[in-house]
Amino acid sequence: MLISSRLANAVIGAMLMAVATAHAQTQDYPNKFVKFVVTYPLGGSSDVMARIVGQKLTEYWGHQVVIEPKPGGDGAIGMEFAARQAPDGYTFLLGNFGPVVAKPLLSKVTYDWQKDFVPVSQITQSANILVIPVTSPIKSTRELIAAAVAQPGVLTYATSGVGGMQHLAGEMFKRLAGVNIITVNYKGNAQAITDVMGGQVNMMFSDALPAMMNMKSGKLRALAVTSEKRWPFTPELPTLAEEGVTGFSAANWWGILFPRGVPQPIVDKVNAAVVKALTTPEVKTRLGDLGVEARPSTAEQFGEFMAKESAKYAKLIKEANIKAE
Q: Cα separation of 252 and 233, whole Å?
């Protein structure tokens, strides 16, 4: 009985010590610099977003948030690197639709966001914009659908690569609008949008920022946005759902993830700081300049959102029989 009591006391003591240690770590967090892993190269939209948010976190915490680019493999290298980091709260990741959802559905990767990561908060979202050559006689999405129905297998749409948001938006459009249009995959956005402007390709679900730039310069005609609701940066454009493509919703997004195992109090502390940063007018404006909208969330909301995205695009990729090149 004495031995059992001593053992029980030792166990209770160890548990209390662990709780006290975790509490102290949380209260003291962060007490040194924090690494913010980005899965794309320096100067890209992900890198700029990370720097905008990281700067605010540095101000709040008094410790530097250091951007650590880990590009390659369409984002997979950065995801794999982040998944292997110690779950102490001193490394977090800027994940986005491509490497978090699309890449694992199309290729063999060594990570699984649901097993290897903990959601912290969504930070941004961006609609794509359905654009056509300015010389086209088509003036609306409904006219575009009518033309595609009248000429099955004739109209074409450009993408910046297999499995990207532009490609998947096109496949979603084909199914929900009931049209047969031909995919033209490019290696990158620049040549794809150039050929749409030149009329070599009939349409494209372009990233928002290049689309808006070319709309303003009169080089492209915009018909609709791919988001569920009208896009705040182009409020004059209807959604595809408004134009009769019921159920259409395809938007790129970015959010912060921790390696699995980070204590929940640290997740909560980082979430609170990120949400605070994203609600400041300065950060909203700077993100808006990139063509993305600030979208703070709870960790739970972000996890639920990613799960829905994974299920939606798994179904689409299977139905469309999309294969990685």
A: 15
